[in-house]
Each structure stands twice: as structure tokens, then as C-alpha cells.
Amino acid sequence: MNLKRKRILAGVVSCVILAVTLLACMSLSFIGFPDGHLTELDKVKEAWLYPVFIGGSLVFAAWFAASGFVFYKNNLGKRLVIALCAYAIFAFLFVCMYLYLGQFFEDGEGICCMSFSDRLDRFLSGWGL
Hints:
Elements: H1 3-29, H2 40-67, H3 76-104, H4 116-126
């Protein structure tokens, strides 16, 4: 892959990460019941889970955007692969923490009333997947 395509790939990945971050921001804005009540799980998600994911995603997006301009000669391909793997691990850990916390914090439906597969289906449907 030549240098121009690597730069384009870095820009596209940055845009995709920004889109994922926008989805996380939208999910954060919909936390809670319509009357304003926040469950234990909602409080944890609002206090640190989503802000950490959004902040980390913005850092990764900025890195990918800058890498197309700054790291233009030395091993851009390797750096992109390593950063993509790092972001994939970061996103996987977010999903794991979301599902783990859903098992142990009350979410308005009773404690631990949903199986892991039901929570995973609900999580994916909430993101439009």
C-alpha cells in the first residue's frame, strides 16, 4: 500500500471513530428514565464508563487524523495497524465493562434479571447493530 492510501486510511479510520464517539454521546444523552430517575447502572455509566470511552475515542481519532499529516515517512503502515489493534482492544474492553456492570448493578428491571446473551442483544440493538 502506498503512502497516499495509508494517509487516506488514517483519515477514514478517524472519521469512523468519530462516528462511534457520536453514537456513544447520543447513548449518554438518553441515559435514565423520562422522569429523570437514574438507576445504579445509569449512574455508573454517566459518571465514568461513557466519559472514559468518549475521551479515549477522541484521543484515538486525533491520533489517526494527525498520523496522516505528521507520521508520513517512517512506518506509517505499522503504526496504523498497532493503533487499530489498540482501539479494537479499547472498544472490546468497553463492551465487556458495560456487560459486566449490567450483571451487578440494578438497572430498573431488578438485579441480575437478564441473562448475559439478553444483555448483549440489548446492547447491540441500542447501537443499531
